[in-house]
UniProtKB/TrEMBL annotation, chain A:
Annotated organism of origin: Lentinula guzmanii
Name under which the protein is recorded: ATP-dependent DNA helicase II subunit 2
Domain of life of the organism encoding this protein: Eukaryota
EC main group: hydrolase
GO MF terms, alphabetically ordered: ATP binding; damaged DNA binding; DNA helicase activity; double-stranded DNA binding; hydrolase activity; telomeric DNA binding
Gene Ontology, cellular component aspect: chromosome, telomeric region; Ku70:Ku80 complex
GO BP term, example: DNA recombination
UniProtKB/TrEMBL annotation, chain B:
Transmembrane segments: none
E.C. number(s) listed in UniProt: 3.6.4.12
Domain of life: Eukaryota
SAP domain span: 609-643
Protein name: ATP-dependent DNA helicase II subunit 1
GO cellular component, one term: Ku70:Ku80 complex
EC category: hydrolase
Sorted UniProt keywords: ATP-binding, Chromosome, DNA damage, DNA recombination, DNA repair, DNA-binding, Helicase, Hydrolase, Nucleotide-binding, Nucleus, Telomere
Chief location: nucleus
MF terms in GO: ATP binding; damaged DNA binding; DNA helicase activity; double-stranded DNA binding; hydrolase activity; telomeric DNA binding
Record localization: Chromosome, Telomere; Nucleus
Keyword Signal: no
Length: 832, 646
């Protein structure tokens, strides 16, 4: 089948809403959260509408104005169609939704459909649909016309003039799809039990007569169709051919010896990204609305209460700090700029029109009103630089999407020329290096071209290569060669695999070979497992599914998104059979390599602070090191991001800093030092719970936190000593205090929590985290007093402590070089 | 449509690649060059590149520093630099007013701070003067008689950095010296060097040594530095075993200084640190690095002209409910599909001229997804990590199965003890068996599950290629486009042989070396930026684009062969044909409707192009990549233009 032109289609859904469609059925739902089976009771109509809605969702999702549909229902109590109003007849057929590009409203209207008490004739309805379609399209021949009939086939069909209808469909080149509820389906291997005779007759009519007469028609069972459409679907998009020229040599002055080959290029791979979601937020009610609602509330009950979600749009505003800050303020100024969280009083809003574009050159600014400097003058074309041996090609340098390069399909000379090069390259085993400019004045790209010999056509495949600027050179310690202090090579070390380990790994690699791990082909030979040509992008399809779902469902709480299609997760794990077969080699590896997970944040695991390093004991050393935890950051805004994306990049970002801390410690260990302040008496008691093999040390510590609920104060103090992560520590501490206080049986820990608060406040005041404290405390107060169950008792204890635990006032802040929006007076008031 | 700025803005849920860049941009780097000014560093020697010229190690060191600064000023405008010289009697003219004093016989040539045009210009000026008068450096920085204690040097570094460097930055000292044994007889001084270095390390400063050796003055690391630097954290990995010598001490000739610095120019930062599950119960830790990432020009920024100076505008973005003109807090944002128009509301007074689309639901209903839900959709609830799926022969990794740049992974002992030996064994085994691995990976908390090819790379000490795995993201079925052209002319063997002849002569044996191709568009931009910052005139003619083909060489080596190939091509039976006018499928035979190239030219000379039909003209235009729009006279005009050129 030739690829269909996307869009330019009018699909008519002809939906049966007759009495029989009101019969109920039990539908198996995807398993619930704990794998329990779930069922739902719904009418045939509701079930069938799922298909219609899915089809329409697809159109909405693609958002093409030229992808239109209309809905005709039959078996309606009323009659409302154009033919009827003009000529009469065609009873119980309604043009339910007129032809237009569908929207969410279309789906909403479909939801309102109810089975009726009468029957309608499907042929009549099809005629009405075709008529409406023709009228809408006029004689636009290029548009694709589709009719989709959805019925249970249990109503009477007027069997007189159907040939004329079929003929009409053929004349108009209409593609017909008949979707039948509980229709027998050979391919699907389905036969309905106790099928009523008249339904059998109707089914046979559709299958063996009507569809036979329509040239372009398919008929299928609803269950099968629903199963099919839930499969992720790969849109095969054709790439546009772009024209360009392949230049060899100096085509301007040495034309005799130079060559220009006219070529066309197009994409071979292109990342298919999901459509972006729109952002919404609940719109707060205005006072007037509130009032109106209050009044109506007295009359009706909750039923009428509504929530409005408004779609959001990004707004960008520009501000400038007009105060001429002298050098002493420089640091601060830089900070403001980066945090994008400026103190508002010094800032002035600037209209975008008044702004000048420019670049930063260190601390100097270079204005550049156009937003860019004059561009490098380049000439459109792909310049051939030379050829490189295939063996020297470094696959890991491939930087992006791949392109086809074809000889101009309308120019035999170009095709021949390219073909000769492609063949010669293939024979010699070389790739070509080129410099690609997509249009005059565009920035050049470097790349490598590989010969591709298809059966009937030859072409090149291009992949972009890095420029010198794109390659980062890092040094890594050798994995194979270790030297001792004297510079001699060591052959035995915990970092170096032993002979036995190497053997175990060899066996493992052999055992996990995928080349015969797939299904058997027709000849019974095992095929390879994991062909990316069968791999669906899980994210893409899942997001698409989610978007579809929320477009039709009005409440996600009662109607949550079903789990992802298993096909999406097909390549998430190695094939079970293979793993089973390889299990003994895996076990051998586990035993031989003895890899141990090093628990995170082992900070508090030291018993006495006197522990000295034992140079011979790597294990010990490693356990003593703290792997990364979280990003150190100074600014508040950054910290917020960090917390949300904890584990995201934060894990690694601070490595360098962390390394240093490690080193400090190991250095210290070599010189026995008196116990520093860090050894806290409380540590040993918490140590008891630790288990080296467990994933987390403090079971009460959330994975993205530095502070656990078991012994927050100790964690707090220890983490502070590391410096640099104050914001995160403060934030975590605040959260932990609140959690503990609001948890059941909190009273037992009241004293401890007051202590924590006191310490936290002190740190906030000293470490320029005043804002954090002043934000936290009012919230905390609210939680204690207002929330349920809250902890009013604890708050009264806080009140007893008095002023010194209240919000930080401007006076206090000033003393410590900070700013606070609370006055001394309001700080006192706050606790009353 | 959203304003231009908005479509350039990085959305929080955007791609990994953008995250990579953001990551590198967010971090601040501080580099303090700490350069020895001893007599041997100042000693004039013949320039290795220009024999007639005399130069010194100090000159080369300063030159390298300047070059690095010039590069960094554009790529990392937030980074700070400084230059500290030791073993010189030069003193500050005015005592430092703020900050700490530095020790004797040391001179802070450039205090730590963000770079600006004048700072770099000053250094360039000094180098210029030195070029004219090689003795200038000795005059400027007279050497001391006896060496300064290295302990004092490290202490000064510490002070200088403390005064000038922001707290959160990664701080490094580039130590450049040619003296391998500064304190041959004093154990005391050695210990003091060691302890001061420890202090430095405690302050979070890493010392990266660049040791210079010459033929007559070899540099023996073991004499002094290997023990002193032992306590220093200059090895970039956490898992330095104290009994093992750090090997990243670079000892090189002065000529290699710049390239050595390039290796260390960018602070090595891991992009992710994740578990790599080889099999259930068999997991190691790996860190990921971006070794190839597209370097972009960088967006322009907005400035406000305040009369006396330019001030950078502070950009605030927020999500706005347009009807109410209020910004919505990020945590309250939910996600869904676009709603068209305002939903019908129960309220008759609903704003008629509503700008924002709305959706009204019953109280308690939730029509949209939360940010957390969105994340689970994106990641399919997978935690960050790599999971091995199995192995396939190396040649199954196809050229065309690529969509994005690769990343590099290296074992991490700190999360899983034993990672190194396991990783190393796996690497060896995979190289031996010529296989690649396949793995499913989610590299970060918010990234999408992807299938990666795991390509082993063996260590190559000479090429500075580290051992490790490249992980190459493979395209999904959704990302693969089919070939739109299925049929075409195939060249004859004789033509192919002619092509092969010139291909033989134009083969670069070393392969594709990225270093040979600096991005010309980027360099062109930077040069203009620099000229503008220095208030100099930019001369585009002086700009050299190294990516242009070396046509002289091509013609010298293969010109004749190319000509022969062209002649053969012209003789090919299909060469002079232009495709038939109708039908998209063509057969390689000369049909009635095709246009002969020569005929077109003849008719052009006769002025009888008008005789062609529009279809014929169009077919000809199509075959020559000429636009086919317009009426007949347009087409003829284009064909005439073409004939004039060919």
């Amino acid at each position: 089948m030739p690829a269909e032109r996307a869009g330019y289609t009018v699909s008519m859904f002809v939906v049966d809403v007759s009495k029989s469609m009101g019969a109920t059925r039990t539908v198996t739902l995807p398993p619930g959260k704990n794998g329990e089976e779930r069922f739902a009771e719904m009418t045939h109509l509701q079930y069938a509408l799922q298909y219609v809605k899915f089809k329409i969702q697809d159109m909405i999702y693609n958002g093409r104005k030229t992808d239109q549909c209309g809905v005709v229902t039959f078996g309606t109590d009323e009659t409302d169609n154009q033919i009827n109003s003009r000529h009469g007849g065609y009873e119980n057929v309604t043009e339910y939704i007129s032809i237009a590009a569908p929207s969410a409203t279309t789906l909403r209207k479909l939801d309102e459909l109810e089975p009726s008490d009468v029957f309608g004739d499907p042929i009549d309805a099809m005629i009405v649909a075709v008529e409406a379609q023709s009228k809408h399209l006029g004689n636009k021949k290029t548009w694709t016309r589709k009719v989709i009939l959805v019925t249970d086939g249990e109503g009477p069909i007027e069997l007189e003039d159907w040939e004329a209808t079929a003929k009409k469909l053929n004349e108009l080149n209409i593609a017909l799809t008949v979707v039948g509820v509980d229709f027998d389906d050979e391919e699907f291997d389905y036969v309905q039990d106790n099928k009523p005779d008249f339904k059998r007759v109707n089914e046979e009519f559709f299958r063996d007569q009507f569809c036979q007469h329509v040239n372009d028609s398919v008929i299928g069972n609803l269950d099968r169709v629903l199963e099919q459409i839930s499969l992720p679907d790969v849109k095969t998009s054709r790439s546009t051919l772009m024209q360009n020229v392949l230049r060899i040599g100096d085509v301007d002055t040495r034309t005799e010896e130079a060559m220009e080959i006219l070529i066309k290029t197009c994409k071979c791979t292109a990342i298919n990204r999901p459509k972006s979601f729109k952002k919404f937020a609940i719109r707060p009610k205005t006072a007037r609305e509130e009032e109106a609602e209050q009044q109506s509330m007295d009359v009706d009950d909750d039923e009428k209460k509504v929530v409005t979600y408004a779609q959001l749009r990004a707004r960008t505003e520009y501000y400038v700090d007009k105060l001429d800050r002298k050098d002493e303020d420089k640091e601060e100024q830089v900070k403001i700029e980066e945090d994008a969280e400026p103190q508002s009083e010094d800032l002035e809003k600037v209209e975008k029109e008044e702004l000048i574009r420019g670049f930063k050159y260190g601390t100097s600014y270079v204005p550049c009103p156009e937003g860019q400097f004059p561009k490098l003058p380049t000439k459109k074309g792909i310049d051939l630089i030379g050829f490189i041996p295939e063996k020297k090609f470094r696959r890991e340098y491939s930087m992006g999407e791949v392109q086809y390069i074809w000889g101009n399909p309308d120019n035999p000379t170009a095709q021949c020329a390219l073909s000769s090069i492609v063949q010669a390259m293939y024979e010699k085993g070389v790739l070509a290096v080129g410099r690609w400019v997509t249009g005059d004045g565009r920035d050049p790209k470097m790349g490598v071209m590989s010969p591709a010999l298809f059966e009937k056509v030859h072409c090149l495949l291009w992949v972009p290569m890095p420029f010198a600027d794109d390659v980062r050179k890092y040094t890594f310690p050798s994995l194979h060669e270790l030297r001792n202090k004297k510079g001699e090579i060591i052959t035995e070390h915990a970092y170096l695999p032993t002979e036995k380990q190497l053997e175990a790994m060899d066996d493992f690699v052999d055992a996990m070979d995928l080349m015969e791990a797939g299904d058997k082909d027709e000849e019974g030979n095992r095929t390879e497992w994991l062909d990316i040509r069968e791999s669906y992008n899980p994210s893409f399809h899942r997001l698409k599914q989610a978007m579809f779902h929320c477009a039709v469902v009005s409440d996600l709480e009662t109607n949550p998104l079903p789990p992802p299609h298993p096909e999406l997760m097909r390549f998430f794990n190695p094939p079970k059979k293979l793993v089973k077969k390889a299990q003994s080699t895996i076990d051998n590896c586990i035993k031989t390599f003895n890899v141990k997970h090093v628990p995170k944040v082992v900070k508090t695991a030291r018993k006495d602070g006197h522990n000295h390093a034992n140079d011979d004991d790597d294990e010990m050393l490693l356990l003593d090191r703290k792997p990364s935890t979280s990003k150190p950051s100074q600014s508040h805004s950054q910290a917020k991001i960090t917390q949300k994306s904890a584990g995201d990049d934060s894990e690694t970002e601070d490595d360098d800093d962390e390394i240093l801390i490690d080193k400090v410690e190991s250095a210290k260990r070599t010189n026995p030092l008196p116990t520093p302040a860090r050894s806290l008496p409380s540590l040993s008691q918490s140590e008891g719970q630790y288990d080296d093999d467990s994933m987390d040390i403090d079971p009460q510590r959330d994975p993205d936190r530095l502070i656990g609920r078991t012994n927050p104060l100790a964690d707090f103090k220890l983490n502070l000593e590391r410096g640099d992560i104050v914001t995160k520590v403060v934030e975590d501490m605040s959260a932990v205090i609140q959690e503990v206080v609001l948890a059941p049986f909190a009273s037992r820990r009241s004293t401890e929590m007051i202590e924590c608060l006191t310490e936290l406040r002190k740190v906030c005041l000293e470490e320029d985290e005043i804002d954090a404290w002043n934000t936290f405390l009012p919230e905390f107060k609210k939680e204690c007093i207002k929330s349920s169950p809250g902890n009013k008792e604890f708050w009264s204890k806080v009140q007893k402590v008095g002023r010194r635990i209240s919000v930080i006032s401007d006076k206090e802040a000033e003393k410590n070089g900070g700013i606070s929006q609370f006055s001394e007076h309001s700080a006192i008031e706050f606790l009353e | 449509m959203a304003p231009y700025d908005d479509w350039n803005r990085v959305d929080d849920d955007d791609e990994d690649e953008l995250q990579d860049n953001a990551l590198f941009d967010a971090k601040k780097d501080v580099i303090l060059f700490c350069i020895d000014c001893s007599p041997s560093m100042l000693q004039l020697r013949p320039d290795p590149e220009e024999e007639a010229k005399m130069t010194s190690h100090l000159y080369a060191a300063l030159d390298s520093a300047m070059n690095l600064q010039k590069r960094k000023v554009v790529t990392g405008p937030n980074d700070s630099f400084g230059i500290l010289l030791f073993n010189t009697t030069r003193k500050l003219n005015t005592p430092r007013t703020e900050g700490s004093e530095i020790k004797k016989n040391m001179f802070l040539y450039q205090p730590i701070g963000p770079l600006s045009a004048p700072v770099i210009q000053e250094l360039i000026q000094l180098l210029h003067t030195t070029q004219e008068n090689p003795e200038e450096l000795r005059k400027q920085f007279p050497p001391t008689d006896s060496r300064v204690a290295m302990g004092d040097v490290f202490t000064s570094c510490n002070w200088v950095i403390r005064d000038g460097a922001p707290k959160t930055a990664t701080k490094r000292v580039f130590l450049i010296t040619d003296e391998d044994d500064p304190h041959p007889s004093s154990k005391q001084l050695r210990i003091s060097a060691q302890t001061t270095l420890e202090d430095l390390a405690q302050a979070g400063v890493v010392v990266e040594p660049f040791f210079i050796q010459t033929e007559d003055k070899p540099f023996d690391v073991t004499k002094f530095y290997s023990t002193v630097l032992q306590t220093n954290a200059f090895v970039d990995d956490t898992d330095l075993d104290p009994s093992v010598l750090a090997e990243s001490i670079s000892v090189s000739r002065i000529g290699d200084l710049l390239s050595q610095m390039k290796f260390r120019e960018v602070t090595k930062r891991a992009l992710f640190n994740i578990p790599f599950e080889l099999a259930q119960g068999f997991t190691i830790g790996v860190k990921g690095y971006g070794l190839v990432t597209e370097q972009k020009k960088g967006e322009y920024k907005y400035f406000v002209d305040l009369g006396d100076r330019l001030e950078a505008a502070i950009v605030k973005t927020g999500q706005l409910d347009e009807d109410r003109q209020v910004e919505v807090d990020k945590s309250n944002i939910v996600f869904g599909m676009a709603v068209v128009g305002a939903a019908p509301s129960n309220d008759d007074d609903a704003e008629a001229d509503s700008m924002a689309a709305t959706k009204v639901v019953k109280s308690g209903q939730r029509p949209f997804y939360t940010a957390d839900e969105m994340r689970t959709f994106r990641t399919l609830s997978l935690e960050p990590g790599l999971k091995l799926l199995g192995f396939k022969p190396r040649d199954t990794l196809r050229f065309e199965d690529n969509v994005k740049h690769s990343q590099f992974i290296y074992p991490d002992e700190t999360t899983y003890a034993g990672s190194k030996r396991t990783f190393s064994a796996l690497l060896k085994s995979m190289i031996k068996k010529k296989v690649i691995g396949l793995a499913r990976g989610v590299l970060r908390r918010n990234s999408t599950p992807t299938i990666y090819a795991i390509l082993p790379q063996d260590e190559d000490v000479n090429e500075m290629e580290p051992a490790g795995f490249h992980i190459i993201p493979l395209p999904f079925a959704d990302d693969i486009r089919s070939a739109p052209i299925e049929e075409g002319y195939i060249a004859s063997d004789s033509l192919k042989d002619r092509a092969r002849a010139w291909i033989n002569k134009t083969t670069i044996k070393s392969g594709y070396i990225p270093d040979s191709y600096p991005n010309p568009a980027l360099a062109f931009h930077y040069d203009q930026l620099e000229a503008s910052a220095f208030r100099e005139e930019f001369n585009p003619d002086a700009f050299e684009d190294l990516t242009e083909p070396n046509v002289d060489l091509i013609h010298a080596k293969a010109g004749k062969l190319l000509k022969e190939w062209k002649v053969e091509l012209a003789n090919d039976h299909s060469a002079t044909l232009v495709v038939p006018v109708t039908g998209s499928k063509r057969k390689p035979d000369a049909s009635q409707n095709s246009i002969d190239l020569l005929e077109v030219k003849t008719r052009f000379e006769e002025g009888s192009l008008m005789k062609y039909k529009v279809d014929q003209l169009k077919a000809f235009c199509r075959s020559q990549n000429i636009p086919t729009s317009g009426n007949k006279s347009d087409l003829i005009q284009r064909v005439e233009d073409w004939c004039k050129l060919h």
